[in-house]
Structure formats: structure tokens, C-alpha cells
Amino acid sequence: MDGMILGVDIGTSATKTVLFDLTGRIIASASREYPLYQPQMGWAEQDPEDWAQATLNTIAEVTASAGVDRRSILGMGLSGQMHGMVLLDKAGRVLRPAIIWCDQRTQRQCDEMTSILGRERLIEITANPALTGFTASKLLWVKENQPDIFERIDKVLLPKDYVRYVLTGEFATEVSDASGMQLLDVPKRQWSGEVISALGFSMQWMPKVYESVEVSGQITPEAAEKTGLWAGMPVVGGAGDNAAGAVGTGVVSPGAAFSTIGTSGVVFAHMERPQIDPQGRIHTFCHAVPGAWHVMGVIQSAGLSLRWMRDELCAQERELAKQEGLDPYEVMTREAMQSPLGARGLIFLPYLMGERSPHLDPVAKGAFVGLTAVHTRRDMIRSVMEGVCHALHDSMEIIQEMGVPVTEVRAGGGGGRSALWRQMQADMFGVPVKTVQAAEGPALGVALLAAVGAGAYDTVQQACSAAISLNQPLCPDPEAGARYQRMHRIYQALYHALKPSFDAIAAMPELE
Q1: How confident is the model at residue 512 (pLDDT cuts 50, 70, 90)?
Q2: pTM of this prediction?
Q3: Which of 164, 426, 463, 467 could bridge to 433 as Cys pair (CB 3.0-4.6 Å)?
Q4: Is 311 a catalytic residue?
Q5: pLDDT tens digits for 230-251?
């Protein structure tokens, strides 16, 4: 079958729309940025209309620049930032700004959820402990703080699913993104009446749940006029950003995993059956592959840690990069490579924004431990890079402890472009680390889901085989791995040793 497929990724900073052919080749792309609002410390909100307009505008730009017959576009997939809460009234109007994934206002509501349902039962159903970033606690916050808005709720949608509503008029979601609402029975891949009822919500608020490759709606005539698409074009369920990124890197079968080092960091592994960490240290969600699940660890400050190092301590490297016409990170990596493995005993804890996996600790703090007068800035740079990998390794160890097979890792995000960071991961994880030749991640992933939904491919695995090519792997060095393993035990002990100090610092009234 000939034709093209459209992938739209509704991110936190921007929406990116990419038109691909069926082999994954990019035909045209466009992106639009929009603001994030922080009305109070720890709050994070966005205007859903910004997402909708960015999507309409980027699709229109792509269809115009591609110069193709609109009927040759077979279908569309939507990816998006997870956990955000969009509330609509009976007329389909947005009731308040969306509270998004990084908002931290709901710890009290999380404690309430745990009290109502019990921690073990909540994990058994939703596969995760109550978390401030997830959607359910946000709904409780509105119930308790904005009762006038709560009483007018008719539908609760995730960010990409609000965009779906604008494009198709349908109230729909899909299993991978819905898994992050903490209202889905993740093992059963359906809404949990028990959780929804216990928290005082209505099942009528919840959109229909689809598998990620299923057609969830069609482009309306109004949306077709605004975008250059054809009325009736199918829109599949799509996926949350991490599951979409997994499809876009071909992590769709047992043994495959991927790591992402962006602002935050992710380790993600495919599972054929649902397995849940009973301690809730890492997350289990439905995968975008029908009938599959995934397990995922998330660290808060991955690339953010190296960016902090660049901005605050590496003025010399920034100036040198400017003189040489290089990215400052290239110069910093060059410096880090001149420091020996282990940075001469210097260990960095990358908890600059608290930590999620495996500690679920919003007050954890970053630290350099082992600093002496012999250490140089290049040791500090290497220590930061190694510290991020140690944090990712925490999650990988739990994944392996759960018995989930991992035989290779595919690296993505800005950090995935660093050969040094990839080699550190290969050595710590003990498996080859690869990269994909096309780095469009979530947009490609949901475009491939659309290709399956449109009938161009029979399965997600078949679509990935046709569209995704891999570069040569970096293989683990057993000797380096053994040295890193010894350091990792020290790294892990440091969090527990410093935890009382983190709590004491957080409780200091002069810091409030």
C-alpha cells in the first residue's frame, strides 16, 4: 500500500507534527511552542487551547509544504504529555487551565487516596502508588478547592485527547495514556469503577478507552478545512509520550528496552504480561502494543543535571565552545573523557528536583560526595554524567529484579546522542546500547500506530520492522561494568545516609 502517515506529538514546550511515508522517511515537519504558567510555587498549568491551535497550525503548515494529495495521507496518530487534566462542561468548553504532569500541589490528596483505598489495593488496581503528577489527585484537588468547577465537570480528558476532541468531536483516550491517570485498572485495560467511585468521581466523565492502534474518530469537516486534511480521515488512539517513543524506537517485543536522557530520564522495558513492583518504586502501564504492558522508571533531573553544570560551573567550556563553533556539551564531554572511570571517587547524586524512581521523594537534594582538593572540573562533569546513569541503573536493577528480560537498550533524547553517555549505560546495564537512525521518537511512533490502524501494516511489530533502522551498538566492557557496580553500591547507600539531612533541610522555616 502506498501513502503517508501523520504523527502529532503534543509536548510540554511545543507541539511537533511530522508527515512520514510508510518507511518512516520524513516528508515534512513543523512545530509551535507555547507557554507554561506557574501561578504558585510548585504549580504548573497550560491552556488547552494553545495545544489545539498549535496542532491545527502545524498540520496546516505540513500539508501545505508537503504539496501532496491530501487523500494520500492514510491516517493520524496523537502522542502527548501524560497525566495532564483537562476538564470540560456539558457544552464541551474548558472549565479551567489544565494542571499538567509536573505540578506538585497534590501531596495531601495523594495521602487521602492512599487512606481511602489502601496502598496495596491502589497499586494492585492502578499498578502505582498515589503520585502527585497523576490525574486522579488533581481531580481531588479541584473537588476540595474549586467545588463550583467540580460540580460542572462533564468530561475529563488528557492533553492529547482534548486535541482529539477538537479534531474529531469524539471523547476518547487509549490504554497507554489512560494508565497514567490512576483511574484505570491497568491489568484489565479498562476504567476501574472501584477507584472512580471511591474517590467521588463519575464514570460518565471518562472517555471511551481504545487500544492504541484502533480508530477512535475521524477528522471533522471543520477540522479538515483548517488543516488541509480530508474529512473522514481516521485518527487512531495514539499513545502517551513514553509509549509512543518506545514504538518510535522499535521497543515492541520482549527483551527490548529504551532509555531517554532529556530534561528528565526514563528507563522503559516491554512486557508481554502485567508485572507490578509491589513496592511501587517504578511504574507499570499498558503499552501501545495491543495486549502488552511496559514497566518504566523515571528520574527527575537527567539532562537537567548536566545543563545545571553547564550553566553554573562551566563558563570556560562555554567560551571555548563559542570559539570553536561547537555545542558546549561537546566540549564538556571531551573534558569528561579525560577523567578516569569513576571520576577519581567523586559521586554525584542527581536529585536537583527531588526524585521519582525509585525513591518517590520530592525533598531529595543533589550532592557531590567524595570531593577532594585533587578533583578538577572535568572530574565533576564526568561525575554528573555517571550520576545520571547510576540513577537510571537504579530503575534497571528493579526491572531485572522483577524478571523482565532486557537484552538490549535503545538510547534516545539529547543524551542518547552522546557516545560517552551511551557507553556508561552499556557498562552499567551490562547489555548493548543502540540508537535509531531516525530520531523522531513519539511522532514516528504514533504515525506507525496510525499505519496499522489504516491497514497499511498488520501489526505494530511489522510497522516498526519496515520503518526503523538501527545504528551499530556500543557493547558493555565487563571490567568497566564491575568497577561501576562497586561504585553503584556506594551510590545507593548515599541516598539513605543523607535522607535525614534532606528532610531537615526541607523543614527549615527560612527556606519556605
Answers
A1: low
A2: 0.91
A3: 426
A4: no
A5: 999 999 999 999 999 999 999 9
